[in-house]
Amino acid sequence: MRNIKLLIEYDGSRYKGWQRLKDSDQTIQGKIESVISEMVSRPIEIVGSGRTDAGVHAKGQVANFTVKSDMSLTDMHKYINHYLPQDIVVREISEEAERFHSQYNVKSKKYVYNIWNHWIPSAFERKYSYHVPEKLDLNLMQEAANLLIGKHDFIGFSSVKKANKSTVRTIEEISIVKEGNMLKIIFVGDGFLHNMVRIIVGSLLEIGLKEMKVSQINKILQNKTRSDAGKTAPAQGLFLEAVYY
User: Fold this and answer.
1) What is the C-alpha to C-alpha distance for residues 147 and 143, in angstroms, rounded to an integer?
2) Using CB atoms within 10 A of its CB, is residue 229 exposed (0-12), middle (13-18) or buried (19+)?
3) What is the rounded CA–CA span in Å between residue 232 and residue 200?
4) CATH code matching the domain that covers 108-244, chosen among 3.40.50.410, 3.60.40.10, 3.40.50.300, 3.30.70.660
5) What does the alpha-carbon distance between residue 65 and residue 100 come to, in Å, rounded to a whole number?
6) Mean pLDDT of 190-198
7) What is the rounded CA–CA span in Å between residue 117 and residue 135?
8) Whole-angstrom distance, CA of residue 228 vs CA of residue 234
9) What phi, psi does 238 have (nearest 5°)?
10) Per-residue pLDDT at 22
11) Which residue in 29, 39, 88, 130 has a CA-CA distance of 20 to 30 Å to 13?
12) Rounded to 5°, angle at Cα 125 from 123 and 129
């Protein structure tokens, strides 16, 4: 049995997220599984490093599947990309050790959230960023972001309704970088709860607009209450940039 690893990029605009759904074939996982199953003439399930929500994009999603096949990696790669929709691409394919697992072996992930920060919107960036026309105080935003670095219970910054599993995560980095009119908020951490990055972004934006105080960050961490945090930033600005093993 061969263990095949995929490095995948996708435009999530028209999909209902990564995870396969019983009532819809408009998922990233479902599209890839369908193509691979046709390729090897048997049902194949792929395992992703984690879920991305509807409308979220990826430049470095990782998945793996096991298969009995003599097909070369090059032929697999060409077949999969030929039959996938144009907004899903397998960038790299490799054969890994039997024990490699794209989800359980993850050490950290990198997400990037794009904000188009100019009073004039962009016709081209609108699908891949959140338009914020107002001027933002980036120093306040970075000051607030620094309070989130480290090991915390992030349930107040998530859409998790009931915590059956631990909601403690470690954020290694939150950097705010301005590139022309594009503002990039870069996150690196050992894992992220449902909507966690987008809720943090929404909170940082409210701080940058001076609608929320920096001290509110500590209150959210202490009270663990979602309603204390900012709005959930829209999905189209979020990219899963890389997964580290």
Assistant:
1) 7
2) buried
3) 8
4) 3.30.70.660
5) 10
6) 96
7) 7
8) 18
9) -100, 135
10) 81
11) 39
12) 130
Q: Do residues 195 and 159 make contact, with C-beta atoms less than 8 angstroms apart? A: yes
**Alpha helical stretches, state H, 52-176:** 73-83, 138-146
Domain 2-96 and domain 108-244, same fold? Reply is yes
Two tokens, residue 30: 């479902």
Q: What is the pTM of this model?
A: 0.94
Active site members: 53
pLDDT at 164: 80
* N-to-C CA span, the chain: 22
DSSP H helical ranges for 84-156: 138-146
The one-letter code for the residue type at 7 is: L
pLDDT digit string, tens, across residues 72-82: 999 999 999 99
Give the span between the Cα atoms of 17 and 52, in whole angstroms: 5
Q: What six digits make up the tokens of 178?
A: 């301005």
The token pair that represents 39 in the structure block: 């390729």
- Share the mean pLDDT of the chain: 96
> What does the pLDDT look like over 57-113, one tens digit per residue?
999 999 999 999 999 999 999 999 999 999 999 999 999 999 999 999 999 999 999
Q: Which CATH architecture has domain 2-96?
A: 2-Layer Sandwich (3.30)
CA 228/CA 224 separation, integer angstroms: 8
- The two structure tokens encoding residue 169: 């995560």
For the chain, the structural domain boundaries read 2-96, 108-244
Q: Which two tokens stand for residue 87?
A: 């907004």
